[in-house]
Amino acid sequence: MDHPPPPLLRRPEALLLDFGGVVFQTRKRPDGRADVARHLHGVLARAGHDVAVGPLRDSLDAGLAALKDWKNAAGRRRTPAELDHRTIWTDFLASDLDARAREVLAGDAAGLLAAMSPLLSEHEVRPGVRDLLAVARDLGVRVGMVSNAHSGRSHRTLVRDAGLEEYFDVQVYSDEVGIRKPHPEMIGLAARALGTVPERCWYVGDTQDRDVVAGRRAGVGAVALTRHHHTDTPPYPVRDRADAVLDTPEGLVDLLRHSRPASGASSPEPVRRPPAARRGSDRLPGALLLDQGGVVVLSTPTPDARRSFAESVAERLGRVGYATPPTPSTPSSARGASATAPGRPHVRTRGRSPRSPRGSSGATWSGGTCPSPPAPCSWPSRPSSPWSTRGPRATRSRAAASARSWSSAPTARSRSRSSPTPCAAGRRVRSSPASASPPSSAPTSTPTNSAAANPTPRPSAPPSPPWAWTPPTSWFVGDKPWRDTAAAHAGGVGTAVVVRGGSADDAEIDAALTGPPERRPAHVIDEMHDLLGLWAGAPLPLTPSTT
């Protein structure tokens, strides 16, 4: 570009890129929808339902057409919300199917959407993208992904498989944050995670109605488009205009390379971090990582909620065609409770036991990974399960219709056993002047998360590492030495803290202080606000060195 517009002459602090049309070129696979229909047929067959491929393909075609219309309509809204995974199946892709088949697919909604993306389309890194990312790294410009997506999980896999993951400091996908472009907060989230503000970012997309509008509403420093399938044919007239429209991302490389750092006098004041020397040198963490249960949220057992959950188990199983075994004068809630109760000690015991990664040999607990049981492992084959004789098809169906869908169900699994209460001391820690600078994250493990469970190096790291976050300067606060402290050590986190009053009793915590190194916390505190004393240099609570 011989004469770049003024906004593109100023170097951004962060470069925010769309996924499809910018980082990746997408092409529809000729047999993609047929392959998806066959995949769905197999899923339903394994759950005990014989649905022909033809009706599945017809429902898929109708659902994708309706989703396209919905996306175009959402683009006219000021702050559009994203559809949840379950609704995409129940109201769009599987709307024509009978209730049992629809419920099975909705039960594994997220997993099926992740599998669909590579079946429907081929993805290829666009020309110039690798050079653009390399230049951004050389110039110290942080990079983020901001994309509407029905499966951020699939997008993250594609980014990783293309060898681009190391270049992205944050990835923001609409299905993960619950809003979609042109909602300006999509860009705001990414900017804050990168330690800056939208005014100091360039945003690069490929559509006028979503990307240009989102950029203007967010107030980014510059908006650029790289032409893709629908760049020049928006579904309706769009008033906002991009600062530049380029044929490929190659045109951005020289623009970024020759841009000039903006002066503070002519631009908004940037978000500043405390001096690096302060982080980790006088007890203040580089990042504060908090477990959820027992730290951010305190739980109280609630038998009524557990009974309600058991009743929802029975109701959902009936919906997919596997009713709980009837007994004379036994209500469905009691049958559901009898079905779920035997498995709870099994899951609890598993969480406390060292295990090697599935499929590996000779791996040790310390420094290794402990895969969280996916839904088909969390529910079937429990001791005394009244469904244990129903066969693998029934148990897979139950898993799909239960564990993976309860995050969007009226009665969440975590609420079935306890009533959560936000920790007041935790709020005081986050609002205190002493804790104003450490960025925070909340890594946690639940049976509905099939990725990994503590102890593992990954949960100790924030999903979107802000700024120059490094594990050695960070603190991880949990309530379980056998899981949380082990995860912190395995992930290289510098300081592991255990707070009393959670899942571990005092005897278990005290034993950990002199136990195996991988379970040994640096500090044990009675309440979350005791962290402030640690950071301020006040007398320290019990530590291994003082026992």
Structural overview:
By secondary structure, the chain is of the alpha/beta class. It folds into four domains: 6-23 and 126-271, Rossmann fold (3-Layer(aba) Sandwich); 29-121; 288-297 and 420-546, HAD superfamily/HAD-like (Rossmann fold); 303-416, no CATH class. The protein has helices at 32-46, 53-74, 85-93, 99-107, 109-120, 129-139, 152-161, 174-177, 185-193, 208-218, 250-257, 303-319, 332-340, 343-352, 375-378, 392-401, 424-431, 481-490, 506-513, 530-536; strands at 10-11, 14-17, 24-28, 121-125, 142-147, 170-173, 201-205, 222-226, 244-246, 260-261, 288-290, 297-301, 418-422, 440-441, 475-478, 495-499, 523-525. Strands 6-5-2-7-8-9 form a six-stranded parallel beta sheet, with helices on both faces. A five-stranded parallel beta sheet has the order 14-11-15-16-17, covered by helices on one side. Helix 1 runs antiparallel to helix 5 (109-120). It is flat and about 70 Å long.
What keyword list fits this structure?
547 residues, alpha/beta, Rossmann fold, five-stranded parallel beta sheet, 20 helices, disordered C terminus
Unreliable spans? 265-282, 354-417, 431-437, 446-468, 538-547
Oligomer: single chain
How much strand content do the residues show? 5-15%
**Gyration radius, to the nearest Å?**
25 Å
Looking at CATH, the homologous superfamily of the largest domain is: HAD superfamily/HAD-like
Number of helix segments?
A: 20
Strand order of the largest sheet: 6-5-2-7-8-9
Question: What does the largest sheet look like?
Answer: 6 strands, parallel
Total domain units: 4
Shape: flat
CATH architecture of the largest domain: 3-Layer(aba) Sandwich
Number of strands: 17
Instruction: Tell me the structural class.
Output: alpha/beta
- CATH C-level class of the largest domain: Alpha Beta
At the fold tier of CATH, the topology name of the largest domain is Rossmann fold
- Intertermini distance: 67 Å
**Overall helicity:** 25-40%
> Averaged pLDDT, please?
77
